[in-house]
Amino acid sequence: MHLKKLSLFVCFLFFPCLSIAQTNNKQSETDKVIDTFLQCNNRFFEQLAKHQNSISQYIDLATTPDNVTYIPVESIYQADKNKVKFKKPLEYRGLKITGYQNIYIPTTLSGQFLYWGFIFDNKEDEIKKALKNINWLPYNTDVYIANPKIYDHQSKFPAWKDDLYAIDGVIPRLGTINKALYLELTADNQSSVFCSIQGDLKKEILLATRPDLKPIIEKHEAERQERIKVYKEKMKKEKEQSQPQTNPAETNSKVGDNI
C-alpha cells in the first residue's frame, strides 16, 4: 500500500517536471530560430527546417521543391498581403513576437529591395534592451540599424565587408549590394525587426542569403522570357506586314517588257 502511494507521489512530481522540461526545450528551439534570423543569412531557413515542429505551433510553414523551409505570406509584392499574424505570441527573451513580414520591391534602375522579419508587440527601447548584444545605431528618427554590410561586384576580391557609410535615403550605388538589420517603430506599442538586402543583386548572391526565393525568381524569369518572346513575335509580324506586297501580274508584265 505504501509502495503504491509512493509510486503515485513520484508520478505527480515527475510529470510536471517533464512538462516544464518539454516547454523549456521548445522555448530553446524557438530562441535558436530567432537568434539565427538576427544574423541575416541562410541559416535562418536551416533552423526553421530543424525546429519546424516547435515553430509550427505559432505560424504555418511551407517548403520549396528544393526542401527549403520558410514562412509563407500571401504575396511578397503587395503591401496589404505581405504579412502574416502568429497563431499566438512567441516569447523571445522577454519580448512578444506576433507576426512575420516578407517584402520584395523590384525597381528598373535602382535594383532590388528585400525586407523580411518579425513584428514585435514591444516598443523599440524594450527590444534594444532585450537585444543588448546587438550594436544598434541611429539610422533616422524612427529606425535603428545594426551590422551593415556592403558587397562590391567591381572589387578585385568581392566579399561582404563592413559598411561604414550606411546612410538613410541613399540607395546602393551601381554594382554594389547592401545588407543590414533594422529596428523600426511601426505602431504605438509595436516594432519590427527586419533583415534587408538591396541593390544590384545577382541571382546567385540573392539565393545564397534567401534560398526560399528560388521558385519565385524562376517563375519571374520564365514570365519575363515569355514577355520577350511575345514582343519579338509581335515586332516580326509588324515588320512583315509593313513590307510592300508584290503583285505577280505586275512582275510578269515587267519581265515581258524587258524581253
Architecture overview:
With 259 residues, the chain is of the alpha+beta class. The protein has one domain. The protein contains seven helices and ten strands. The chain has helices at residues 2-37, 43-50, 52-55, 124-130, 203-209, 214-242, 248-258; strands at residues 62-63, 69-70, 83-92, 95-106, 112-120, 137-138, 143-152, 160-162, 176-187, 190-199. Helix 1 packs antiparallel against helix 2 (43-50). The longest helix has 36 residues, at 2-37. The protein is globular. It starts with a helix and ends with a helix. Mean pLDDT is 85; it is low at 1-23.
In short:
With 259 residues, this protein is α+β, with helices and mostly antiparallel strands. 39% of the residues lie in helices and 28% in strands. The protein contains seven helices and ten strands.
